[in-house]
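Justification of resources, computational component.

The compute hours requested in this renewal are based largely on the per-chain cost of generating structure records like the one below. Each record pairs the submitted sequence with a full structure-token output. That output is archived, and it is also reused by downstream analysis tasks.
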Amino acid sequence: MVNRQQNGNHFLFSPAIIAHRGASAIAPENTRAAFLEAKRLGFSWIECDVMLSSTGEVVVMHDDTLDRTTNGHGRVVDCPYSTLKTLDAGSWFDPVFSMECILTFEELLLLLSEQSLSANIELKPLQGYEEETVKRAMAILHAFQKPIPSILLSSFSKKALRMVRAIDTDVSLGLLMNEWEEGWAEDAAALSCATIHVNQAVLTLKRIQQIESAGYGLLVYTVNDVSRAKELLAQGVDAVFSDCPREIANVFGIQ
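The structure output for this chain reads:
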């Protein structure tokens, strides 16, 4: 039961800062602690990433491998959930977070509902796993019956986005661009996207205006500098993704 909170193709981002992987400057990324910290700071939107385990569960992780953010090793897609759920996903950040674990997609959705948080969920399938990742994620999303303010699905994988759109004609999609792609408008139209998500390093005022004039919401990542965030928002960007340093929260009057 996901409400689409939009004005035209634009979601209503208030405040116009999305907590990137949760409040990931303050708590370990993509964990319950990071999402709860974002809520405590006053953010209404979080961003996170999901992918498959070897046994087919959809889990909340950014990296293809476990090594950076857990005490596990190897690829997530090669690891059964029975092992994933035992891993420490917090001590790498600070020992105080040693009890943080890898969330399942279902657990994430329940947290969003309980906390009244909206989420941009990035689908991160390994090449060759797009179909299984999308089918399992969409089945979970469709089966979830508790209210969530808004859900926006995004991906760098156009193949994954096409599969999502084939399953669900109504779900809101965001097209991700790390490098500027001249054919972005055709891709976004074919996918009936609501938003375009762009690396701040390749974004210019002209490109901002192109996306706006085409009627898409524009989200920019990853912006941790206060002056840069102010500049982008003044130029018409709908929201920026940030690791949520307290400075940004304070400057924008969120905390």
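Residues 1-8 have pLDDT under 50 and may be disordered. The chain is about 30% helix and 20% strand.
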